[in-house]
């Protein structure tokens, strides 16, 4: 069966549009993928050393909650984790929580380090 030329062109345009949408979707999914485990381990090691050198400064629960509120509205935040840097971001005041380290900052600049805590001074 022979397909008329005008339908062939429409079909071609439709296929191109579908392909573009698929590529765009893949690109968006790729953007929120966490860094590789090697990169995460390397970053954690460097950050842990810097944190220890600065005397392990920690945040108050209010500061952690404030940071978490910002993260929760961020496109990089997935399952209590920052997909930009791969760090854990939760409300716990535990060691393995990026938000609990006062000297940490957001990799895209949404929040910064806390220089001095009222608790410590
Ligand atoms: S640390 Fe920054 S980039 Fe990561 S989830 Fe929080 S606000 Fe988003």
Which key terms come to mind for this protein?
121 residues; mainly alpha; 3 helices; binds iron/sulfur cluster
Describe this structure in words.
The chain has 121 residues and is mainly α. 46% of the residues lie in helices and 3% in strands. It is built from 3 helices and 2 strands; from the N terminus they run H-H-H-E-E. It has helices at 5-31, 37-53, 61-72, and strands at residues 77-78, 81-82. A two-stranded antiparallel ribbon has the order 1-2. The chain starts with a helix and ends in a 39-residue tail after the last strand. The mean pLDDT is 89. Residues 70-71, 74, 76-77, 82, 84, 89, 106-108, 110 line the site of iron/sulfur cluster. Iron/sulfur cluster binds next to helix 3.
Helix content: 40-55%
Mean pLDDT: 89
* SSE topology string: HHHEE
Poorly predicted runs are: none
Strand content: under 5%
Note the overall shape.
Answer: elongated
Largest sheet, described in full? 2 strands, antiparallel
Distance between the termini: 84 Å
Bound ligands, each once: iron/sulfur cluster
Q: What structural category characterises the helix and strand content?
A: mainly alpha
Round the Cα radius of gyration to an integer and report it: 22 Å
Order of strands, main sheet, comes to: 1-2
Our count of helices gives 3
Question: Would you report the number of β strands?
Answer: 2
